[in-house]
Amino acid sequence: MSRDSWPLDPDGVWREVLTTEFASGRPGLFLDRDGVIVEEVTYLHRVEDISLMPGIADLILAANRASVPVVVVTNQSGVGRGLYGWDDFAAVQDEIARKLAERGAFWNAVYASPFPPGDWPMRKPKPGMLLAGARALALDLASSWILGDRATDMAAGRRAGIAGGFFIGAGYDEGEVDRALGHGDEMFTVERIATPGAAVARLAILSGA
Predict the structure, then answer these.
(1) Is a pLDDT exceeding 60 seen at residue 209?
(2) Residues 44, 38: contact at Cβ < 8 Å?
(3) Dihedral sign, CA of 41, 112, 201, 171?
């Protein structure tokens, strides 16, 4: 993707909508990127450091086949901190998309926030990116789900009013795990899973149930 085609809004948020050909009111599948789609690498910005997470291609492909829109929502504070640029982000995105395409899988929209931690509406744990994706793709938030590896992902999902989240907590301390699971209640389900692929059998929205 060339610099001229970067889908940045006036606030500097990456808003890339690739497909909108869905019936209105469908559930969506929101995915964090680092630690969910790809293995966690601190401030990932080099294509040679990309490794897909186990089962993620199967999960995204299942969503594609069920006509469930896949929306990537990722905090990328490395951009705002000047550690890497949108050109690096775009190159990483292109390579991840290529690796997924080898398995027949693809995402439908990408939202990336460049802001450092703070009170930013378009940075998780705020729900702004999820709400923007829901508006763009006419999603039914109440039946949508999120996969994340941080408590902030679960918080964003809960604040957006979606059905629940799957927390991939491998490698984090129990404090982070407790914070993530603590967002679950009768209105927002939180389940802990080992890998993204484990969500395939647990998500009714992927089977039409």
Answers:
(1) no
(2) yes
(3) positive
User: Of all residues in the chain, what percent carry a pLDDT higher than 90?
Assistant: 90
Distance, CA of 44 to CA of 167 (rounded, Å)? 20
Residues that are catalytic: 32, 34
Q: Which amino acid is at 197?
A: G
- In 3D space, the residue among 171, 152, 194 whose CA is nearest the CA of residue 32 turns out to be 152
Q: Which domains does the chain have, with CATH numbers?
A: 3-206 (3.40.50.1000)
Phi, psi of 165 (to 5 degrees): -145, 150
Structure confidence by residue, pLDDT tens digits, 118-164:
999 999 999 999 999 999 999 999 999 999 999 999 999 999 999 99
User: Widest CA span of the chain, in angstroms?
Assistant: 46
**Which of 16, 173, 29 has the alpha carbon at shortest distance from 89?**
16
Helix/strand/coil for 42: coil
Whole-number pLDDT of residue 170:
72
Helices (H), the chain: 56-65, 77-80, 86-101, 128-137, 151-160, 174-181
